[in-house]
Each structure stands twice: as C-alpha cells, then as structure tokens.
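Section: protein folds

Sequence with per-residue tokens
===
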Amino acid sequence: MPNPTNSTQPPILANAPRCEARTRYGAPCRSPAVKGNHRCRMHGGKGSGAPRGNRNAWKHGWHSARIRVIARYVRATRFGSFPRHSEAFAYEGMADSAPTTSAPAAQKNKNTNSRQQPHAPRIFANRSQLAAPANLPAKALLLTAAPAYHAAMHARIDRGGGPGKAGHGITRRRLLIGGGVATGLVVGWAVWPRSYAPNLAAAPGEHVFNHYLKIGTDGRVVVAVPQAEMGQGVYTALPQILADELGADWRTIGVEPAPINPVYANSLPVEEELARRLPSWLDGPGQWAAREIAMRMNLTMTGGSSSIRMFESRMREAGAAARALLCMAAAERWKIDWKACDTEGGFVVRGGDRLRFGELAEAAARLDPPDPLELRAPAERKLVGQSVPRIDLPAKVDGSAGFGADIRLPGLVYASIAHGPYGGARPVKMTTADAEATPGVMAVVTNPGWVAVVGTNWWAADRGLQALAVEFETAGPRPDDGSIGRALTAALDGGGKRFTERGDPEAALSGQGVINAGYSVPMIAQAPMETLTATARFGDGRLEIWVPTQSAPMTRAAVAAAIGWDAEQVTIYPTLVGGGFGRKGEVDAAVEAAIIAQKLNKPVQLVWSRREDIQHSRFRPPAMARMKARLGPGGSIAAWSATIAAPSTAAQILDRMSGKPAKTSHGPEHAALEGAVPPYAITALAVEHAEAVIGVPVGAWRSVANSYTAFFTESFIDEVALVAGLDPLSFRMQALARQPRLARCLQMAASIGGWQGGESGVGQGLAVHSCFGSHVAILAETRIDGQQIRVSSITAVADFGRMIHPDIVRQQIEGSIYWGLSNALGDAIALKGGVVTAQNFDGLGFPSLTDMPEIRVELIPSNLPPGGAGEIAVPPVAPAVANAIFAATGQRLRHLPLRLAGA
C-alpha cells in the first residue's frame, strides 16, 4: 500500500530490508525492517503502538479523519468560508510543470539598468562584496537578484522524487513545514500528505540550507521573508531572529521575498478562528488542522499583525538548523565532536579556532541537520531585543529601492483607469475621439465596471482619461450617506446573531436600572502613499506580474482566473509595498493590468490616480452599536450587551480574492465583532452582529473591526463608570482584576500621563484594548478652543511580550496613534449619487503636523511570547479622545468623527 502521507514515496513493504520512508528532514530513514515488524519507531516499529506494516498509513488515516471533522467546523463559519480542495486555492502552482520564468526572458533583461530590471529586489545590509565578515562599511545597498531567482520564484513545487528519482533543490531537507517548537513546528513528513521542497533559487556561490536561508561562499547570508515589507519592518525583524540563532554578523545579512510555496502559509488567522470555535479537547488537532488548511490553500499573506507571531519560531529553527550544519562541517575539518563548536559574528568557533561561514557553506549544505534542534538560551541571544540598523531604510532613502511603479520594461506603456459609481456600473458613453486626440494616448480599453486609457507615459494616459468624459449607468440604486445610515439602522432593528454569550444576559438586563447608549462610525479609506499599481507582460505563453501585494499566491490565482489561464502560467514578482493597511491584500490592480495587457498584447503598467485610489478604496466598514449594561454590587458590572450593525467584511474579502461573483448578503460573521468582548469582569454578557447591506464594497482597515469595537466599548465603559459614581480609572482597575497585563498598562499610563480626570476646558480620557496578542492603554489630554478640539498629548503604555526590535515597535505605536487620531477626528467618507466626494488627501481631513500632540510611549519589558505591534494602538485612541472631551465639556460624543458643533 503506498504511503498516503507522501504521494511520491514508494510503498513500504513488509519484507523490505530497509525503511523506505523519509525522516522529517526528507532523508531516508535507514532503519532495518524485517518480516513486517518494522523496527523504526517513527514509521511503525516495535513499541510504536502502530499496527504492523505502514504506521504512516495508520497515522495519516487518523489525521485525515480528524481534519475532515474539523473542516466541517471551518466551512460552517462565515470567517472560514474557505474553498474546498477542489476550489481555487487548493493546489495552484503545484502541478509538475516547468518554471514560470523562462531563461530567455531572464537573459533578455539581464543587461538592463536598475530601473529596467524586471525582477524583485534583494536587499543587503551592506554594499561591499564581503571578502570577510569583519571591517565592513556600514551603508546598506539595494542589490538586484540574479535571474536564477526569478526562474524559480514560482517554479514547480517539488513533491519529492522518491529513491532513485531526481528531485528539485535539496529535497532531502524538507524542513520547517509549520509551527514552532512549543507546538511541534518541525513536524515529521509522515504527518503530512505532501512535501514542499525549498524552491529558493541559488545564485552562483550560494547554497540553500532550508526554505528560509541561503549562505554564499563570500559570506553573505540571504534570508527569504514570506511577509510583505510595507514599512512595518519585517525585512529587518524576521532576518534579525534568524541571524541571532545562526550567529551571523548582521552586516552580512541580506533579504529577498520568499517564492510562492505552501510552506510559507500564514496559518495564524485560521488557528485563532479554530481555537475560538472548537472545543478545548480539540486544541491540538485544531492547530494541526489549521496549518494543513492554510498550506492546502496556500495562504501566504501579510496582515493581522501576525508576522512575528507566526514566523518567529520558524526563523529560529531555520537559523538553528543552519548553525548545527555549519558546526558539523567545521567539526569534520577539525576532527572533533560538532557539539563542541558554536557560532558568532559569522564564524564557527571552538576556542581559538575560527572558520568563516563562507568557507563551510558548500560542505554544510550537503549535511542533514540533527533532530531535535537545539535553540539558543535567552542569555545567548545577542541580536534579539536590540534595535539593529534596518536593512530596507538606506535603499529607501537614496531612492534605489524598487516599488511597484519603479518597474521599467522594454516597450512598456502606461494606463490610467476610471471606475463607475457604486451600484453595479458599466460604461455607456464616452468621447473616444477627444481622448485619442490627447498627445501620447495610444488606446482606450473598456471592461464591465471600468475604462482605461493607455499612453506612452502615465501623464498622457491620465489626461486622455479625463478628456474621455466617460458616463456610467448602474444596474441598481446608487448608495449615498442616507441609504447607508438607513441600512445600518434597519439591521439593528432586525436584531443580530449572537456570537458570544456568558450567563443569562436577557434576565440580567430586564427591568429598571439598565444603562443604554448608541454609537456609530463612518467609512474610512486606507489612503496609503502608494496608490494601487501593477505591471503585466505576456510572452511565450506566460504572464508576468510585478505588484506590491500582501498575498502573492492569491493575486496569482485571481489573475489566472480573470484571463482564463492556469495559475502555473502566471508569475508574480512582489515588490516593496508603499503602505498597505489591508488594501494591498486585494487583487484589483493586478487583475486589471493583466486584462489591459492581454487586450493590447503589450507590457502595461497600470497606476491608479489618487482620486481613484480614494474613491474606490475598500473602506473600513461603517458600523452602529446599541450598548446596554447593568451595575452590580460594589460598582461591579453585572451585565453587558452589545449589538453591532456592520457589513460582513471578511466574507466579502474572501469572495473577491477567490474570484467569486459579488453577493448582496453574506450573513452575520464573527470577524465583524473582533475586539467587541470587553476585557472586564462581567457576570452576564452578550455580543451580537447584525449584518448591514449597504451597497458599497468594504474591506480591511488598519486594526480591522477593533477600530470601531474599541470605540463602542471604551466610550460606553466611561458612561457606566459615571453612573456608578466612580472615577474612570478606579472603575476600570477594579474590573480588570483578571487582566493583570492590561491593568499594568493602564496603571502606568495614568502615572506617566499624570491622570487627574481633567477640568473645564482641559480634559483627560482613558481607554484600554487588547488584540493581536498585545495590550495597550492610552491617556489622551484635550484642550477645547471654541468649537475646535485639540489633542495636546497622548501617553501610550504597551505590553507586546518579547520584543525583537524595540525601535520598530515604538515606530509602529507612534504611527498607530496618528491613525487613531485620523479615525477620531478625520473626515468621514461621504457618498453622493454613488460617488465618493473626496478626491485627494485634502478631502480626508487628516491631522497635520501642527495638529499632532506630544506623544509619550512606554514599552513594558517581557519574556512572554511576542504579540503584534502594527495595529494595537489604533483602536483605543478615538475613545480616549472622546472621553477626554467629555471631561472637558460635559458633552458625550458618541459618533465619529468627533465634532463639538451640533453635538
């Protein structure tokens, strides 16, 4: 019977003289197997507890059964409306096909200058050629990857050739397939139905050690990062973790985007959803199932403040495995036990003996790592926790960094695009002659929902688009502010689906003494500095796409579906991302660029104008809430209820990214309530989502639903404290008795910010929030000048657990505070006749530099597992400012944006 856990392995026969299975690193087991009583404990040997013969088959049968059971839970959820194995994401790019970037294409472009190079960048921490790890200049350089990298960027994902068959890469080392040490992240291949060999491309002199690491004979250490660099620092923090475990010299570290491979799947969002839905006795199988589901769906994506939480363990293990291999190679030369060796500063050392990594790389890459891996003790980690120089910043400062709009190809033309109003628009009238008369305009391309003008340069294309004066008609009513408000109110009136319940909230909230309040938030645009852009080129039966994306596999799948090709024919080159915040997780620009390039049979670079980027953003959804609470003895919270009306955002995103037709309704979902369960001790609790159908597509915004649920909760808790007759600080502290980390943040914020409660004209407000594994407290101080609200200072105290790069964490907190102020005080997205009225940044009401308050940030040291840093401080800013306004004026502002006029 074939081994079902690895379809490429030969049968494990009862009379085979040796075990033909593979170890968890892909190497042959080599254990003797005699007369059906397999002696290998891993694969069914004596004492293993497996039936005779193939233990893998028995084990996989159990795992297959339980994953089928768990999958029913997943498909039953709105958040988890994942495709089945036969659907879009299941095995894209995994068929036995040739590499997607042809050698001629790579050769053709190898001599072009840096702005013409059609491939993703590799960034090194240093400009020198690294003759030795010491005495290196400090300035960094953006270097271009070798053409070989792009030949393998989306190459065949090897399923393992089996004994006697050729494999791709170092197929014996199928390493680090999922998880971390605490949950068995280095998992035996017997557990998995497929193997995913490293498909990193090695330039001359480079040697691939595992999915995450290459070491060159010149001493360069290249880390493959599967997360998009959007300014949040993953191109520094993730290599920092690996380099620390490896013992590398930081000045020799380079980084490049990881290729498409299911091994890089980000399973954390699936794990968190399954943990919420499955009973506790399924925690272990649930984690396994989450990793399996994420890999089968190729869910390589950046979002949810998950980069460090997801990949810290994998990076540590990749570094530890390479360290062991280098020590083993050095030990062979020195004729000693490899465990007597260590690494530091790019050398393998033993006493006074030293060998450079580059000298050992070729020999070390041929070896198999030990099992189990030995990770460094905390005291031995010299890089983690230090604010090392960021790898990506020098290239961004000197302009050599490659973003999406920097791509230049031979014969490239440029496109600007216009989309119709919301309501199912299609173009019906345009003055084509006027557009074509514009100097530089080459063509007009129409498609359901949009029109694009193509020119010899983007300025000409955009001028031609304006001259086109296109008119759209809509199949349905065009939404506006009034219709959206009515939809939210109707959803609230209709009641919601309860996702969280504790005690008997109905009984506890009946009768007298119930506190009620209603709140609302508007739509907000992501508005990154870089608008949507993508470059597409057809040739030799293939399509290449250069795009700043938060999910390369999903972008590839969507593009392939849009043009009617197989995913294996599409190559995605992810570029640096000039701000994402959820918007670059979607696939609009890549799909549109591919369609235009296909129609014109020319390489096309599509760049959305600022007006299009704002008017057709995937907005943070509007939301309304009805809050109820009742106090218990001693100022405790006896009951709490929150009903929140909002569109079902996560379901919309999944449908768009998987190419499904747009639906009017998706049903209530838990994702719309993320962060809505208060951290406080509450006896009876109910949290419900009422889906609102508003006629406008919405999407992920920085901190997603937390950006409005925290406003509802932390504003209402202040109102409840007022009824209880208690100071907002004291009321929160007593209710946070079971949340010591959050309570400590609050206590420190009050102390550092000088909490006094505020006075007339000068108010202080508090808010706390936990999400993405982190905790934060905000103290805001406001001054009222007539009808103007001025935030004079904000104090933030955060507990992220173990910090990799403190300066990056601090930068993320400071940036998040600005976003929180934009959420609180910026202008709402307004619609008139299905069209967004804002056309540029000046229509969004962002706070200016002169409006920015003094910001104080305190980070609590911790050895606990790391949490997310990129979004945690956004949610509590708006309620802290609203509570400060109440303290200063006595006016309770329950609706964003915060305005005193007409309150």
Remarks:
- The first helix runs from residue 55 to 75.
- The two ends are 74 Å apart (CA to CA).
- The chain has 22 helices and 32 strands.
